[in-house]
Task: inverse folding
């Protein structure tokens, strides 16, 4: 049987105990990807689209549960607003970190003006606010947070320190 499109299967835990649950940024289906295949451009088992895009994903009320609570990857959230000059200045740094660090991390952008309830749930009091989040079976939890725009080297250092990689 010949298929013209790339098919990526979901991998049950029994087949590969070293796997990570990861929500598709497009259809929000939770996929199980073997850890050794995270860097091989995995595709969603349901919609067939890439699980990693190389770009930050907009965090909304509609996708928050899947991206934060059902996925097991470390997540970095950039809480920002369009009127915030430091936020706009930090956006290219956040995008550069995303290109460098996916698939080890998932990068999300929370527009506090478009999602005020979600921003309130995260207790955002200043902008930009960066939140290190660890998803998992327990529903996930905040690991660290900092406020203010950071240059790329300092941002990378903060991430490493936040997740105990430094």
Result:
């Amino acid at each position: 049987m010949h298929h013209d499109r790339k098919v990526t299967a979901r991998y049950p835990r029994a087949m590969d105990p070293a796997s990570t649950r990861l929500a598709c940024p497009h259809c929000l289906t939770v996929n199980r990807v073997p850890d050794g295949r995270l860097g091989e451009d995995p595709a969603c088992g349901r919609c067939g689209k890439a699980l990693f895009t190389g770009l930050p994903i907009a965090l909304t009320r509609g996708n928050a549960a899947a991206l934060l609570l059902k996925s097991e990857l470390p997540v970095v959230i950039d809480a920002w607003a369009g009127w915030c000059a430091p936020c706009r200045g930090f956006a290219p740094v956040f995008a550069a970190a995303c290109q460098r660090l996916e698939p080890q991390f998932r990068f999300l952008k929370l527009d506090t003006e478009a999602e005020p309830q979600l921003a309130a749930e995260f207790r955002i009091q200043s902008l930009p606010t960066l939140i290190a989040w660890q998803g998992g079976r327990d529903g996930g939890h905040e690991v660290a947070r900092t406020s203010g725009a950071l240059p790329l080297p300092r941002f990378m250092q903060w991430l490493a320190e936040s997740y105990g990689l430094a």
In short: The beta strands are 19-23, 30-34, 57-58, 74-80, 106-111, 129-134, 141-147. The CA atoms of residues 80 and 128 lie 5 Å apart. The longest strand covers residues 74-80.
